[in-house]
Design a protein that fits this description.
The protein is of the alpha/beta class. The chain has helices at about 30-40, 45-55, 80-95, 110-115; strands at about 5-10, 15-20, 40-45, 60-65, 75-80, 100-105, 120-125, 135, 145-155, 160-170. Strand 3 (about 40-45), helix 2 and strand 4 (about 60-65) form a beta-alpha-beta unit. The protein binds NADP nicotinamide-adenine-dinucleotide phosphate.
């Protein structure tokens, strides 16, 4: 079946997405949004992101990329290339029979870097923080992506200001 690949990411203003083990902020509204955006979809993630979550997310397939041929974890669909991930994700969607066609590029940094060029859309939460961290989201080429949605969320107590952005691939 034909599927669409959508990157879902929360990124700081300096493009940092995590410290390598975990996220660097807590945005309750964003967790809800991620759940809405991803429910019923395969999540394609790196083994380090799987480790940081620690369990399969309900209602979604957890497709985990690793180079380790012996790695396995309960609830994870293990793959060794992005191509294999996309095939397994498409097969999982076909099995569900829900009509859903989106697969989610779920991170982290290595997996966004590898898969962004194949994405049809990006659902981004941009957070007004500049933490230090090794995991980053790649630069977006403005010639290839159009911003089609922007919702601003003001700072509230400990929760920093952030915005929800949608980018769609520009027609060539
Ligand atoms: N803010 C967000 O939206 C967001 C989203 C997701 C993750 N994160 C954060 O990002 C950080 C993790 O990102 P990361 O870049 O360090 O790691 P990652 O992308 O989650 O995972 C990297 C791992 O994926 C596997 N891998 C990478 N390329 C591969 C390939 N070509 N073929 C097969 N396997 C491959 C390797 O696993 P093996 O080592 O097992 O071989 C590699 O160590 C964490 O801090 C996490 O919290 C943030």
């Amino acid at each position: 079946m034909n599927t669409k690949l959508v990157a879902v990411v929360a990124m700081a203003s300096n493009r940092v997405i995590g410290d390598g083990d975990d996220l660097l902020w807590h945005l309750p509204g964003d967790l809800k949004r991620v759940k809405q955006l991803t429910m019923g979809c395969p999540l394609i993630m790196g083994r380090k992101t799987w480790d940081s979550i620690g369990r399969p997310l309900p209602g979604r397939a957890s497709i985990v990329l690793t180079r380790d041929k012996n790695w396995q974890a309960e609830g994870a669909i293990v793959v060794h290339s992005l191509d294999e991930a996309l095939h397994k994700g498409a097969a999982w969607l076909a099995e569900q029979g829900t009509g859903e066609t989106r697969q989610i590029l779920f991170g982290g940094g290595q997996i966004y870097k590898m898969g962004l060029a194949l994405c049809d859309a990006i659902e981004m939460t941009e957070v007004d923080l500049a933490p230090i961290g090794p995991a980053m989201f790649p630069e977006i080429d403005a010639g290839h992506w159009h911003e089609t949605e922007r919702t601003q969320v003001p700072a509230d107590g400990d929760v920093p200001a952030h915005r929800f952005l949608r980018y769609e691939k520009a027609a060539n």
